[in-house]
Amino acid sequence: MKSKVLLSIAFSMSVIGAIAQKDNVGIGTTKPDQSAALEISSSNKGLLTPRMSLQQRNAIQNPATGLMVYQTDLLSGFYFYDGKEWKSMASETGAKSVADANNWGLTGNGGTTPSTNFIGTTDNQPLVLKVNSINSGYVGTLTTQNTYLGHQSGNLSGTGVANTSLGTNSLKSNTTGVFNLALGVEALRENTTGGSNVAIGTSALSVNTSGGANLAMGTSAMFNNSIGTFNTAIGANALYGNTQGHYNVGIGPSTLLSNQSGIYNIAIGSEALSANTANFNTAIGAGAGKTNTGSRSIFIGYQAGFNELGNDKLYIANSNTATPLLYGDFATKYLAVGEVSALDRTNGAAGGYRLLVKGGVMTEKIKVAVAGSADWADYVFEKNYKVMPLEEVEQFVQENKHLPNFPSASEMVENGLDVVQTNAKLLEKIEELTLYLIELNKKVKELEIINKKGLISK
Predict the structure, then answer these.
(1) What is the DSSP string of 53-114?
(2) How many CA atoms lie within 13 A of 16 on its CB side?
């Protein structure tokens, strides 16, 4: 035992002598490098540093700058204290380990507290995410209120505020536009100054630049809109071709598909007003007014007015037919009911009629207005009215087979029955008959007087 103590003292003295002589120490070598205060050399052993858990490491009181330990739990590895906090010695390109409770690992974290643990900034600066060094996410400050997510989504150099985008290239070009919402790949891609737009769906409002207050929902809805405002498009390709039209509503796939500059149009139903290029049209029903290019028309029903090209039309139908249940012309204030043919409609309108009904009308009461007293037959009782002698009436009837000053059967077939005119003529004949009876009554009374006086020979 005494010999071991003496040997230990001798070894210690030799080490102290080595330090004193060379200012460096070698373990496993007699020639430590001059640049090293301590050199350990071995071919089959290593240097074992203190090993401890994260909790034990964080419990070290007043750690010295440069203090090194090996952490055994969570994301294990070598850590050193840099004077302010523990730092991992792992490569930045590798799987970064947990340095302390404020950092996050790439393989997940446990024991987090929602009220204190977060990913983000602690100052008034936005949070930026990148993929392959390209902007792919942005959470703005309370001042800008912009939020972007997706490859090149949003324009980080723009000055617009309160914009939200989700999807690759959505709101990519926005500069000063405000209050825009873009959800979908390339939604509002080219928007620069337009504001208050809502684009939901791939390529919705994709090339819009300065148009504002538009709502586009569906793939390629309002795709070509550039400066149009206050439009609503719901459905794939709805208002697809619109460039500068305003106040249009298209609900359904391909509604108002070709509209470019038309305004105040309403189309509800797949392909309704699909070819429209004009203004103030309303179409409700799939395919209603599909090929129409006129203005101020109304189409109601499946394919109602499908092939109509004119202005100011009314169609109510449930098929693609040229003789709808209701057809109207707002310009001439004309209405046809009951699948009236196009020729009859033309003739009726040309004749000044406002309502044409096919198949008859049944009602409990009807009143026909008379334009003026001249259209009624009271002129028969005027003193200057000449009643045709009965002999002439007899001759006229024998030759023409109808009463004088009254339409014949063939004329009725050709021209139809004008209720006012016909009733006036009938009254004319009744009043003429009354005059005939009055005159006959006078003759009878004269004969009675003569008879009483015995002037008539027996």
Answers:
(1) -HHHHHT-SSPPTT-EEEE-SSS-EEEEE-SSSEEE-S-TTS-PPP-STT---TT---S--T
(2) 6
What span, in angstroms and rounded, lies between the C-alpha atoms of 45 and 177?
Answer: 67
pLDDT in tens, 231-277: 999 999 999 999 999 999 999 999 999 999 999 999 999 999 999 99
- Distance between CA atoms of 221 and 235, rounded to whole angstroms? 6
- CA nearest to 207, candidates 221, 176, 166, 275: 221
Contact 310, 327 (CB under 8 A): no
HSE-up (13 A, CA, CB side) for residue 184: 20
Round to whole Å and give the CA distance between 52 and 404.
Answer: 129
Position 13 scores a pLDDT of 43
Please state the rounded mean pLDDT for residues 286-300. Answer: 97
Cα separations in angstroms, 277 against 73, 209, 262, 289, 301: 70, 21, 5, 12, 21
Q: What contacts 226, CB < 8 A, 6 or more positions away?
A: 207, 208, 209, 210, 211, 243, 244
**Using an 8 Å Cβ cutoff, are 138 and 147 in contact?**
yes
Q: Which two tokens stand for residue 86?
A: 């523990």
Query: What is the C-alpha separation between 16 and 343, in angstroms, rounded?
Result: 126
CB-based contact 165:151 (threshold 8 Å): no
Cβ atoms 290, 273 nearer than 8 A: yes
Identity of residue 326: L
CA distance 58 to 340: 93
Place of tokens 């599909």: 290
Global pTM reads: 0.70
Specify whether the CB–CB gap between 286 and 302 falls below 8 A: yes
Q: What is the pLDDT of residues 336-377, one digit of tens each?
A: 999 999 898 988 888 788 999 988 888 898 887 887 777 787
Residue 300 φ then ψ, to 5°:
-130, 125
Rounded alpha-carbon distances, angstroms, from residue 450 to 153, 298, 315, 444, 445: 119, 77, 74, 10, 9
- Cα 247 to Cα 121: distance, rounded to the nearest angstrom: 43
Enclosing H/E stretch for 147: strand 147-149
Contact at 8 Å (CB) between 178 and 161?
yes
Distance CA(255)–CA(289), nearest Å, equals: 10
Burial of 337: CB neighbours in 10 Å, binned 0-12, 13-18, 19+: middle
- Mean pLDDT over 125-137 rounds to 93
CA separation for the pair 212, 88 (Å, rounded): 51
Structure tokens at 33: 């490098």
SS3 (DSSP) at 129: strand
